[in-house]
Amino acid sequence: MSGQPELPQPTSTDDLEALPKAELHLHLRGAIPGWYLRQQFRKYRPAEVIASAPPKQLAWMLAHPGVRRIVRSDDPQSEIDSLFRRGTFQEFLGAYLFTGYFVRQVEDFRNLVQAVRSELRRQNIVYAEVTVSLPEYMQQGIELKDLLVVLAEDPAEPPRVHWIVDPVRSFGPEAAASLVERILPDRPQSVIGLTLGGAEHLHPPAPFQRAYQIAREGGLRTTIHAGEALGPESVWDAVRILEVERVGHGVRAVEDSNLVRHLAERGIPLEVCPTSNVCTGIYPSLEEHPVRELFEAGVPLSVNTDDPSFFQISLARELANLRNLGFSWPEIGVVADNGFRQAFEPVAARTRPGASPGSTS
To answer: Would you give the end-to-end CA distance of the chain in angstroms?
Structure first.
């Protein structure tokens, strides 16, 4: 991407749609297209697929009204839209869990990767660092080595995709460290980072120190989901104990002025996902989201979609929403470019006319 022409200054939502964009906080299955699921519902009958789920998971999934409609329908493909309707956070988690049961073979995984790539291309997202929760696919019987083979595949056409491995908090610190150790010897170049997703309030950052140490020593870049379900103390642990380079979400850092100052002074970027934070109940509305306050305090940040299929948002619309939070168009341009500047691939960095050299806020 080095040597690319400077990007034009956006002045409208249409400009943002056409703008080459980068996304740094995006979950593979969170971006699952509806058409891919329709294809999988033809391959696997939903009621049969989830019948073997553990009782607790089954109850969790069926708490989502869309899942119930799909499972009970004679034509489950016609009910896809009901899965992506916004509901409670628990319903979102149930729907997200449900989709994992339809990636059962390595070809399903490969097709999912290709489907998400095509959706990124359609949105003119030319660079993406996508979180992939490998244990969730391994639970369906897909071998780690086969997953890594798929992640190593690098089509010539855009977007350029790099992968950030998520060992998933709920599997525990020892399992996280073990997974990182297993990945490193055969790690594809496209696998560039480590994160931790899942229930932050049940599994805070500190116990995962060893996994992060192994990752750093093995050449992986580091980020983590923190400061979302838990407050500033989770972000402090992430930056001081795990020594992460970026923080996924991190917005509740705003509750601690010393932490905000620390992030700004050390240049530790936040991967901010405003619509996700509203949909998951962190903030009651976009108008009450602290992204503007963090930006004005000099905290480096990018804006991302997290789970766009479930939250019904695109990166262009996420950026455009900043206008309602007091951002000028030039400031939105800076935030959009930060997706390139703060990427773990240095050659992804690009500048926009009018942005100060090296600006990351």
So the answer is: 21
Contact criterion met (CB below 8 Å) for 86 and 66? no
CB neighbour list of residue 68: distance below 8 Å, 6 or more residues apart: 62
30-65 pLDDT per residue, tens: 999 999 999 999 999 999 999 989 998 899 899 999
Distance (Å) of CA 189 to CA 161, 195, 219, 277: 11, 17, 10, 31
**Is 228 a residue of the active site?**
yes
Residues 6+ apart with CB under 8 A from 48: none
Which residue segments constitute the domains of the chain, with CATH numbers given? 13-33+125-344 (3.20.20.140), 45-100 (no CATH)
Compute the residue count for the chain. Answer: 361
Q: Which residues contact 134 (CB under 8 A, 6 or more apart)?
A: 144, 147, 165, 166, 167, 179, 183
Q: Please identify which of the residues 228, 265, 293, 331 carries the catalytic annotation.
A: 228
